[in-house]
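Hi there, hope your week has been kind to you so far. For a while now I've been wondering how a particular protein folds. I'm sending you its amino acid sequence along with the backbone structure tokens. Could you read through the record and tell me how the tokens relate to the sequence? Take your time with it, there's no hurry, and the full record follows here.
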Amino acid sequence: MSALLVHAVDIPLVYQVFRHQTRAESERSNLFHRMLRDAIADGEAQRAGSLMAEHIMQGRDGVLALGSHTRAESETHAS
């Protein structure tokens, strides 16, 4: 599994997103992890897939927001 993650996840970028998460965002992410665990344990493959897809989309939104924030900071410092 960890070998697959190396190819699927940009670890430094993920850590940057974690550092910029609000408490509510972090709690929501942890809630998704628990719901995913429970769906998998209960054999609910379709539910687990739907939860994972939503969790990934939320992560994508975090990466995009971080990129917007970083660009805005760069433009402010360049002025």
Notes: DSSP finds four helices and no strands in the chain. The chain has one domain: 2-78.
